[in-house]
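Input record (one chain):
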Amino acid sequence: MSFLDLLFGPAPTRLPPPDERLALASLMVRVARADGHASPAEIGRIDVILAARYGLAPEAARALRTEAETAEQLAPDTVRFTRALKDAVPLEDRRSLVEALWRVALADGARDAEEDRVLRLVANLLGLNDVDSALARQRAAL
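The corresponding structure, as predicted from the sequence alone:
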C-alpha cells in the first residue's frame, strides 16, 4: 500500500519509517506553503532538516521533499499527516517534529498568521499544547 493510498484510505495503524518520513516532509511543505508561497529559504530548510534528521544525502532529501510536495497537494487535510506521525512517533519525540516545522516556518525570517495557525493545529493534532509549541518555536529561532 502506498502512502497516497494511506492518505485517502482508513486511518493507518503504524507507518513504516519511509512513510513516517514522507508524512513529516509533507507537513513541512504544508507549513512552507501556508502563507501562499514557499520561499527558497523554506524549501532549502526542508531539505537540510530531512537530510539531518534521517541521515539522507542531499539528493535523497530533495527527492523526498519533491515526493512530499505532490503528497501535500493531494492530501484532503492535515489530519492524515499528523495521525500518521502521532501513530509512529512517541509523544516525547513529537516536540522535535514541531520544532522542525517551526524551523521551516521561520526560515524566511518572517512569521505569518497562516503559518502560526497551521502550526497551532499541527501541534494540537500531535497531542501537544500551546506551551510545547511555543517552546519548540523558541528553540527553532535560536
